[in-house]
């Protein structure tokens, strides 16, 4: 069964079309990722699904409830962790959690079992004000607050943005164990490397969904030969590669450029081309595409402008 059904939903702010005819479904118990850069429309979509914004058109059903007609009932059945830290900075860890429990007519004790594994990590600091917590601790507290009323569906908007690598890993481990308890989780992230941790993902850009599938099957959409290329002068390298007849696209990925080809060409031919353009310390290797390669390729096919 589907826990979330989004059917052709749109939302504009004045003349900015933040979400445009978006449709997808999330199955019960699924860990589903919404992957896209800043401004893709993820937060607007989340706000509609947790009933904080009404759509301009289209409809959506979450946990069997219509997000417009049944919005009051739905609010008690979803947990929402907003992208920006939204807890009370002047309240302590315990006071924040107690506040959210009370708002939903419950208590920390009543639902302790669901948050226990996460809460024990911050409980030693329960008298510390939220404003004085580290990024990782704030994130754990926000997750506890989103869970304290035992929601059926959990919405996490960019929970790992601005959090260190260790805390990010811990957070994804927590999501895995929540999933094992049967929760449906919709999580958004701008980090492409987190896509592989989801059961299925939707790639989003410019208010539109570009593709929905398992991370493995999304990468199969990328059919072109792909190489990672490095040389002494990166800026000149990218220009020369973009001008080459064999090039389909060329983007910077960390210290390497990812070069997608129009047609099969050997690394020796690419190297000869670069040598003829006086490049030095050339390093070329054939690679398998990742989610980010697919994302860039899908953007170029749909001609939605990429945002940095
Ligand atoms: N309240 C608002 N008024 C006007 N424009 C808005 C408002 N909120 C968002 N937008 C615009 O709508 C588009 C989608 O923004 P949204 O916040 O939904 O994207 P996002 O993928 O969540 O990105 P971010 O991580 O930056 O929040 C962007 O162009 C943004 O500038």
Automatic annotation (TrEMBL):
<keyword id="KW-0547">Nucleotide-binding</keyword>
<dbReference type="Pfam" id="PF00005">
    <property type="entry name" value="ABC_tran"/>
</dbReference>
<dbReference type="GO" id="GO:0005524">
    <property type="term" value="F:ATP binding"/>
</dbReference>
<dbReference type="InterPro" id="IPR017871">
    <property type="entry name" value="ABC_transporter-like_CS"/>
</dbReference>
<protein>
    <submittedName>
        <fullName>ABC transporter ATP-binding protein</fullName>
    </submittedName>
</protein>
<dbReference type="GO" id="GO:0016887">
    <property type="term" value="F:ATP hydrolysis activity"/>
</dbReference>
<keyword id="KW-0067">ATP-binding</keyword>
<dbReference type="InterPro" id="IPR003439">
    <property type="entry name" value="ABC_transporter-like_ATP-bd"/>
</dbReference>
<dbReference type="InterPro" id="IPR003593">
    <property type="entry name" value="AAA+_ATPase"/>
</dbReference>
<dbReference type="InterPro" id="IPR027417">
    <property type="entry name" value="P-loop_NTPase"/>
</dbReference>
<feature type="domain" description="ABC transporter">
    <location>
        <begin position="4"/>
        <end position="231"/>
    </location>
</feature>
